[in-house]
Write a structure and sequence with these properties.
The chain is mostly beta strands and 126 residues long. The protein has 1 helix and 11 strands.
């Protein structure tokens, strides 16, 4: 069982109107940047998450990556390589979850734009 200080227990984080209590001070997506356009014809995008303090893997905590409100990846690593992302605007959010699945902390949402060349209109820009 992990020890949690009284200060950490008193910490409540509000994200998108939902309160989370936990031992994590900050969770944020550092790549891609807010409003960034990712140019990749295969729809590949690297997502990097920062968690402070570092993720408690011994307790079974993990990062769940949401795209457009649905879980698309999870793990204990802070980098996720998404493949085949459709063109258009997408919203990312990272959540730190306990071994039982409860959300301990969440990042603010980050929007990015996926640009993929089209065979139908090779000169068209998305």
């Amino acid at each position: 069982m992990r020890a949690i200080s009284l200060a950490a227990l008193a910490c409540v984080v509000m994200v998108a109107g939902v309160a989370y209590a936990g031992a994590y001070d900050a969770v944020r997506i550092v790549a891609p940047n807010e409003d960034e356009t990712v140019h990749d014809n295969n729809g590949n995008v690297a997502v990097v998450v920062r968690v402070s303090p570092p993720l408690d893997v011994e307790a079974g905590d993990r990062i769940v990556l949401l795209m457009d409100g649905s879980a698309v990846a999870s793990g204990r690593d802070a980098r996720f390589d998404l493949k085949g992302v459709d063109r258009g605007t997408h919203v990312l959010q990272a959540q730190v979850t306990a071994a039982g699945g409860s959300v301990l902390a969440a990042s603010p949402q980050v929007s990015f734009h996926m640009w993929r060349a089209s065979r139908l209109s090779p000169g068209r820009k998305d």
